[in-house]
Every structure is written in structure tokens, then in C-alpha cells.
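STRUCTURE:
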């Protein structure tokens, strides 16, 4: 019996198991409890991180960020730390004069955006809970990420954690593809063997 399909499937399965094992070693036990914190995972990468904040459905809360001192752009984001399917938020950005700089909606556990700064001022980030349940979230801000050594330093949390995780994700996808290919080869070989028996 031709076992090439089984061998290919086993290789793919080992790739999948290996990717999960490496991810577990990188994230630790806290990474799989459903409440993985991006600020903790990327500690020191942000200029300002808010406390965990609870927000009732339909309510909103504002956070201020100082975009002065030669700020050219801002990387900002938010994470719903207790995310569940159906959660949705809207973030509106204004200055002290009420000028609008954009409105963003998301139904994902976390998202990041960049904002170009044309003049030094304080910005107001108004977060509104558009979902049907109370959420807990955190906001993150950093100035001039393109010029920030924390993002280019090879020893930074970004390069030590997120880059390997991206590679692990690719390995996981490849593993799944290899398993599927192995199954297809096994089925093909089985049908070929069955047909040869009737010849």
C-alpha cells in the first residue's frame, strides 16, 4: 500500500503541533486564557496606555492625548480585553475646538490606526460602545512610530514577540495546507488502488 499521503499528512500535523508549541512558549500560560493583553505583550512600546475601562452598551467615554512636541503622526489603537462575538465600538477623534479628525468602527478584538498631525494640539478620542453588552477595553498611543527606536530595535518586544508570532502563523497555515494535500493524495492513491484491483 502506498503510504505517501499518510506521510505527508503526518508532516503537516507535526508542523501544526510545532506552531502551537512555539506559540505557547512565547506567550506563556496567560496567552491562551482569552484575555491576552497587548500592552503587556508589547510592554514599553507605547507612550501612553489607559487603564482597563468598562463601558456599558450605548455609553461613551473620552480619552485625551497630547499631540504636541514635534508630533508628526500618532499610532493609536484599542483592545477589547474581554472580547466576545458581537462586540462593536466606534472611536471619534476631535480636538478642543470640536474639529473632527475621523470616525472609526470595529467589531474586532483589537485594531490600530495612524493619524497625521498637522499642528500641535491635544486630541480627544471618544469611545462609544455600539454592542449589546458591557465591554472592558484599553487604549494605546505612541508618537512618531516611524522614528521611534522602540519599533526598529531588534531586541524590542515587537521584534521578539509579534514577528515570531507572524512566522508561527505562516507555519500553521502551511501545516494545514500540507495536511489537506496529504488527505487528497491518500484518497487519490486509494481510488487508484481500488481501480487497479478491478482491472
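SEQUENCE:
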Amino acid at each position: 500500500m502506498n503510504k505517501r499521503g499518510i506521510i505527508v499528512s503526518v508532516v503537516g500535523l507535526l508542523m501544526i503541533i510545532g506552531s502551537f508549541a512555539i506559540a505557547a512558549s512565547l506567550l506563556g500560560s496567560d496567552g491562551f486564557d482569552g484575555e491576552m493583553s497587548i500592552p503587556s505583550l508589547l510592554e514599553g512600546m507605547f507612550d501612553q496606555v489607559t487603564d482597563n475601562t468598562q463601558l456599558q452598551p450605548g455609553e461613551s467615554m473620552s480619552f485625551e492625548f497630547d499631540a504636541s512636541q514635534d508630533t508628526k503622526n500618532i499610532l493609536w489603537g484599542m483592545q477589547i480585553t474581554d472580547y466576545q462575538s458581537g462586540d462593536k465600538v466606534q472611536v471619534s477623534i476631535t480636538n478642543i475646538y470640536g474639529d473632527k479628525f475621523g470616525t472609526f468602527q470595529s467589531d474586532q478584538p483589537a485594531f490600530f490606526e495612524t493619524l497625521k498631525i498637522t499642528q500641535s494640539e491635544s486630541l480627544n478620542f471618544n469611545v462609544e460602545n455600539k454592542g449589546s453588552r458591557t465591554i472592558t477595553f484599553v487604549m494605546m498611543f505612541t508618537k512618531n512610530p516611524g522614528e521611534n527606536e522602540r519599533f526598529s530595535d531588534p531586541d524590542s518586544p515587537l521584534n521578539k514577540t509579534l514577528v515570531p508570532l507572524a512566522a508561527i502563523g505562516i507555519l500553521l497555515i502551511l501545516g494545514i495546507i500540507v495536511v489537506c494535500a496529504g488527505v487528497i493524495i491518500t484518497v487519490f492513491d486509494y481510488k487508484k488502488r481500488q481501480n487497479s484491483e478491478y482491472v
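REMARK: Helices lie at 4-27, 38-41, 149-152, 157-197.
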